[in-house]
Amino acid sequence: MQETIISVKDVNYRYSANLEAVRGISFEVRKGESVGILGPNGAGKSTLAMLLAGLFLPTSGDVKAFGVSTRSKEFEHVRPRIGIVFQDPEDQLFNNTVIDDVSYSLRNLGVDKESANRRSMETLELLGIAHLKDRSPHRLSYGEKKRVSIATALVNSPELLILDEPTANLDLRSRRSLVELVNLLNKQGLTLIVSTHDVEALPDLVERVLIMEGGKIVSEGPVKSIITDEQLLGEASLEPPAISRLFMRLKARGLVQEVPSNLEDAFLILEKKLSNKSGS
User: Fold this and answer.
1) 3-state secondary structure the chain
2) Low-confidence residues of the chain, pLDDT below 50?
3) d(C-alpha 181, C-alpha 63), whole Å
4) Alpha carbon distance 173, 155 (integer Å)
5) Rounded to a whole number, what is the distance in angstroms from the first to the last CA of the chain?
6) What is the architecture, at CATH level 2, of domain 4-94+157-239?
7) How far apart are CA 225 and CA 219, in angstroms?
8) What integer pLDDT is reported at residue 278 of this predicted model?
9) Over the stretch 49-77, which tens digit does the pLDDT of each residue have?
10) pLDDT for the residue numbered 24
């Protein structure tokens, strides 16, 4: 059995007496998994992401990362193993140049400037944005800012990457590029947790999904079974991807037998059906 990277047990988080954002949540994430936290705006997803990264501490219950409680003094030694990318890249970028932002955490850990810049350049090259190194982060496009914010999270070579609404406000090209990058990182062994309300992108990003509604986890399972369950998603104020809704209508008319969760699966279903038809 794979190592448990994240363990959440009976966690609650309260912003104030009248605002409980996370309620009684328990789950685990194992090494190498890609897990989505899906829910509408206000469901508590971003709060949960902050709890998993140790940036918020539970009001009650416990969050452990790599076997260490986020409440423990020992967690400071674990923190570099976790990378987090905030929903708004502006919250992550505050230096004069891209290279300064990416190398900031390394320099903060005592890495000398030359080594920090070298590792930062390697990370920027991985993300295809090395040409931005001397640019001001605040003069970049939104998609470029998003990639730089991911670089700041990856430069420490984390074992867990938490992405909060990674596809928000991205154009189609930037979104496709980000999905490809996330998949590559996961194939290379990086454990991923993706918090989002973007039902369309989720099947291409993760393998397992937790649905949040009202601060609670109301369901979990493989991405395809969750994303194509119209009733379940409807109860959480969500709906299946457009391609899934189309095939639901086709299935209701007896024209197909399966409902895909993404475009690639839809293509394979149609290819098989058309192949069978031409061979009959």
Assistant:
1) CCCEEEEEEEEEEEEECCEEEEEEEEEEEECCCEEEEECCCCCCHHHHHHHHCCCCCCCEEEEEECCEECCCCCHHHHHHHEEEECCCHHHCCCCCCHHHHHHHHHHHCCCCHHHHHHHHHHHHHHCCCHHHCCCCHHHCCHHHHHHHHHHHHHCCCCCEEEEECCCCCCCHHHHHHHHHHHHHHHHCCCEEEEEECCCCCHHHCCCEEEEEECCEEEEEEEHHHHHCCHHHHHHCCCCCCHHHHHHHHHHHCCCCCCCCCCHHHHHHHHHHHHHHHHHC
2) none
3) 28
4) 24
5) 46
6) 3-Layer(aba) Sandwich (3.40)
7) 11
8) 66
9) 999 999 999 999 999 999 999 999 999 99
10) 96
Q: In the chain, list all ranges with CATH 3.40.50.300.
A: 4-94+157-239
Total residue count of the chain as it appears in this document? 280
For residue 169, with 0-12 CB atoms within 10 Å meaning exposed, 13-18 middle and 19 or more buried, which class applies? middle
User: 253: burial class by Cβ within 10 Å (0-12, 13-18, 19+)?
Assistant: exposed
184 in Cβ contact with 164 (< 8 Å): no
Torsion angle in degrees (nearest 10) through CA of 54, 56, 123, 202: 100
Per the CB < 8 A criterion, the answer to whether 232 and 191 are in contact is no
How many Å apart are CA 199 and CA 238, to the nearest integer? 8
Token output for 274? 């058309």
What's the whole-model pTM score? 0.92
